[in-house]
Amino acid sequence: MRVSDLVFESIKPLFQGDIRLVEVEYVKRNDGMHLIVYIDKDGGVTIDDCVKVNDIITQYMDDLNPTNDASYMLDVSSYGLDRPLKYDWQFKKYENKKVNVKLYRKVDGKKEFVATLLGKDEKGFMFNLNDENFTINTADVAYITPYIEF
Fold first, then answer.
1. Are 105 and 92 in contact (CB under 8 A)?
2. How far apart are CA 77 and CA 40, in angstroms?
3. How far apart are CA 138 and CA 148, in angstroms?
4. For residue 82, is pLDDT > 90?
5. For the chain, how many structural domains are there in total?
6. Domain of 17, in residue numbers
7. DSSP state letter for 6
8. pLDDT, the chain, mean
9. Cα pseudo-dihedral 45, 49, 55, 58, rounded to 10
10. How buried is residue 35: exposed, middle or buried, by Cβ count under 10 Å (0-12/13-18/19+)?
11. Residues with Cβ < 8 Å from 84, sequence gap 6 or more?
12. In this structure, are 93 and 74 located in the same domain?
């Protein structure tokens, strides 16, 4: 099992409150290996949230030893607005907000567009674009990211 998957599955039960675990990466950076724990929270993640999560999982990581004694730096970070939405709770968070949509293949001549996310169900994602509602099958969606308006 990959280090990132092992850590994700191992620490997932530690997240019971309003802070949610989104992803874990184990990556090489200029200064060595980094184990990055990405979190999210309604209203946004604060530095205090990152410190709190770091404090909770640091001892746990020492006991887990996911890298078999290889050194790494533990980073806790907000998931970030430019990252793809992955979970139902994230899609719910962005309902009635603009999102960027990237498709695997063209639908109605478009492979990428910005639309309002209306929801998600077993059939797919519901959007509104130019006052027209439509659904795109989940299998056709490569990823959805929040739309950042400047």
1. no
2. 9
3. 23
4. no
5. 2
6. 3-78
7. H
8. 93
9. -10
10. buried
11. 143, 144, 145
12. no
